[in-house]
Design brief:
The chain has about 500 residues and is an alpha+beta fold. It has helices at about 1-20, 35-40, 45-50, 90, 95-100, 150-155, 155-165, 165-185, 230-235, 275-295, 315-320, 330, 335-345, 355-365, 420-435, 445-455, 465-475; strands at about 55-70, 70-80, 80-90, 110-115, 125-135, 190, 200, 210-215, 220-225, 240-250, 260-270, 295-300, 305, 310-315, 375, 400-405, 405-415, 460-465. The structure holds one RNA strand of 73 nucleotides.
RNA sequence: GGGCCGUUAACUCAGUUGGUAGAGUAUCGGCCUUUUAAGCCGAGAGUCGCAGGUUCGAGUCCUGCACGGCCCA
């Protein structure tokens, strides 16, 4: 049947060619876009429209078509919106109208005419001339229900964007969010840079990398899991405020919050501490929500979330007790902590310490409960190999994570710039690797050399852009905010 | 990796106890010059995800596989 529908359209294409109509011309220049029409004339009265005597040329895809013999209404849309147009044989002449009759929903046309209002008051273009710009050979999904099949929406995102306005709006918001973040940091004299996506030593995070091979150099390279160590080399180089917004790649499972490639903002500020960055984040995200959504109070999957600062701050260890309901007896005894984590299903290898167990307990018992924006501070050294130790308590780091809607949105810390301590941390990670932790941080001697030249005291932070977009656009899955999420190939 | 659910016309979905596969939209033909999920009349359209099995007979029951979703690890 689909073949038949395509065949019918090809027949029409043939008839159009016979009438001398080009199917794929590229010499039509619109004078306006639909969004401009709405912005300028959305409120203009019928009398004023008639008095305008102005011709508008627009271009877009036909998305609805209602024919009545020798007249018809269509809706067409361009990138900026949708508008109704009225085709009349009286106005167009018989010959031109015969061409119009060969058009289908999905065709892209250019059309020129005057604006008026219909009986019901809808702003409409009375078409005085039109051209076919692109013949569409396949039928679009249904107009009323749109495209619901989740798999098709991901595999053929272009169809999703054509027929599902929510989806289109979400991606427009995504772009605005990234633009705002870029502007916010640039205004504060952060320098946007680009660092390697292909790295010899995949560092800066605890995750499994993708591997690739460079033929000319004859070496294995890894797609980056984070830009961190390169950005900090730039701090050594004297760029004292830098940021990068780009893709990271992690070779792990796909689920509602994870895509193998995802977009990360990382920024570093010299002479700042993790507390300064919490303050900065507390400015950035509410301003962003205001700018893009027009409010600081949002709803995520039915939960009201208030982004108005100040945000709650809790101590990592304290949160386990108060939010995670882990007893003091367990928390004060490393053995008991490890046993409890295992009891709750955490896979801990022999030799893995209490820090890891605490992190697992936190993930399980605390994270899902952090719905309102919450900074958690004071993560164990063991799970923070690049973060500066706390001056009072060397077992924890000057690190925070930000949670909103139960999701980890940001991770920041005062940077470890003591090369000797950094080497020790790397060696400790090597021990983890030896006992089978594939996500342990690899040792990067070249990075230590950079630190030995001296990196200024610095604080750095990463913000997961996809998750931030999810929260701000009420998207249930990360796949809803990534244009082309990864799926298994068909067949 | 494990569990549960889904896959029927181009799209959105029904399909009873195992007994000739349906609707709406879209498409095609007819009427129709202010409709807007236009309307009225008529028509065509299916590898029921794939492969096996049980059965006189399978969209429906069983097994395996593929793809997707959710949950768990």
């Amino acid at each position: 049947m689909e073949e038949k529908l395509i065949q019918q359209r090809k027949e029409k294409a043939k008839k159009l060619l016979e009438k001398g109509v080009k199917l794929y011309p590229n010499d039509f220049k619109p004078t306006h876009r639909v969004g401009e029409i709405w912005a300028q004339y959305g409120e203009t009265s019928e009398e004023e429209l008639l008095a305008l005597k102005k011709t508008f040329c627009l271009a877009g895809r036909i998305v609805a078509l209602r024919r009545f013999g020798r007249a018809a209404f269509i809706h067409f849309q361009d990138a900026t919106g949708k508008l109704q147009a009225y085709f009349k044989q009286d106005v167009l002449g018989k010959e031109k109208y015969e061409i119009f009759k060969l058009l289908d929903i999905g065709d892209i046309i250019g059309l020129c005419g005057h604006l008026f209002r219909t009986k019901t008051g809808e702003l409409t273009l009375l078409v005085e001339d039109f051209r076919l710009l692109t013949k569409s050979l396949r039928p679009l999904p249904e107009k009323y229900h749109g495209l619901k099949d989740i798999e098709l929406r991901y595999r053929q995102r272009y169809l999703d964007l054509i027929v599902n306005p929510i989806s289109k709006k979400r991606f427009l918001k995504r772009t605005k969010i990234i633009q705002f973040v870029r502007q916010f940091l640039t205004d504060r004299e952060f320098l946007e840079v680009e660092t390697p996506m292909m790295q010899v030593i995949p560092g800066g995070a605890l995750a499994k990398p993708f591997e690739t091979y460079h033929n000319a150099l004859g070496i294995t390279l890894y797609l980056r899991i984070a830009p961190e160590l390169y950005l900090k080399r730039l701090l050594v180089g004297g760029f004292d405020r830098v940021f990068e917004i780009n893709r990271n790649f992690r070779n792990e499972g796909i689920d509602i919050d994870h895509n193998p490639e995802f977009t990360m903002l990382e920024f570093y500020q010299a002479y700042a501490t993790y507390e300064d960055l919490m303050a900065l984040t507390e400015e950035l995200i509410p301003q962003l929500a205001d700018k893009v959504l027009g409010t600081k109070k949002i709803t995520y999957q039915g939960e009201e979330i208030d982004l108005t600062p100040p945000w709650r701050r809790v101590d990592f260890r304290g949160s386990l007790k108060e939010i995670g309901q882990v007893s003091e007896e367990i928390l004060k005894d490393p053995e008991a902590t490890i046993a409890y984590a295992k009891k709750l299903g955490a896979k801990l290898r022999p030799g893995e310490g209490v820090g890891k167990a605490l992190a697992k307990l936190f993930e399980k018992l605390v994270e899902p409960k952090l719905i309102q924006p919450t900074f958690v501070v004071g993560y164990p050294v063991e799970v923070s190999p690049l973060a500066r130790r706390n001056d009072e308590n060397p077992e924890i780091t000057d690190r925070f994570e930000l949670f909103i809607a139960g999701k980890e949105v940001a991770n920041g810390f005062s940077e470890l710039n003591d090369p000797e301590d950094q080497r020790q941390r790397f060696l400790q990670q090597m021990e983890m690797r030896k006992i089978g932790d594939e996500e342990a941080h690899p040792i990067d001697e070249d990075y230590i050399v950079a630190l030995e030249y001296g990196m200024p005291p610095t604080a750095g932070e990463g913000i997961g852009i996809d998750r931030l977009v999810m929260i701000l656009t009420d998207a249930p899955s990360i796949r809803d905010v990534i244009l082309f999420p990864h799926l298994r190939p068909e067949k």
